[in-house]
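Reminder to self: tokens first, then the designed residues, so the page reads top to bottom the way the pipeline ran.
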């Protein structure tokens, strides 16, 4: 498994273009859309457009990188740390991380949406 880190300059998103390779032991069952032919083909061609459909707007100055999982290698996204979380414990930060944020089709929850520090 390879972990790629989102930052203010780069946003990562994961796909498996051949089938539906997915880190089941870490994230549980894959969402239906992850296995769909539409997601698997479109996220490679138009990642910003697909992310926009998920409600994730990526600024034009942020690079979007698409990672293609295979049977040999799986990718996991380390979400960018939300603003206002500097004093939060590891446990509280973990509560802000979602399955979609670890695929790249979402972002970590805002501090107000998760656990308190």
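Designed residues (117 positions):
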């Amino acid at each position: 498994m390879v972990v790629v880190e989102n930052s203010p300059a780069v946003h990562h998103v994961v796909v498996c273009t051949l089938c539906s390779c997915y880190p089941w032991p870490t994230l549980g069952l894959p969402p239906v859309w992850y296995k769909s032919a539409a997601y698997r083909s479109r996220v490679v061609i138009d990642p910003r457009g697909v992310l926009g459909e998920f409600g994730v707007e990526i600024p034009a100055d942020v690079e979007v990188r698409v990672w293609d999982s295979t049977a040999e290698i799986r990718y996991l996204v380390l979400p960018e740390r939300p603003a206002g979380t500097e004093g939060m414990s590891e446990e509280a930060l973990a509560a802000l991380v979602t399955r979609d944020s670890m695929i790249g089709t979402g972002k970590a929850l805002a501090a107000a949406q998760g656990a308190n520090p």
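The chain has a mean pLDDT of 94.
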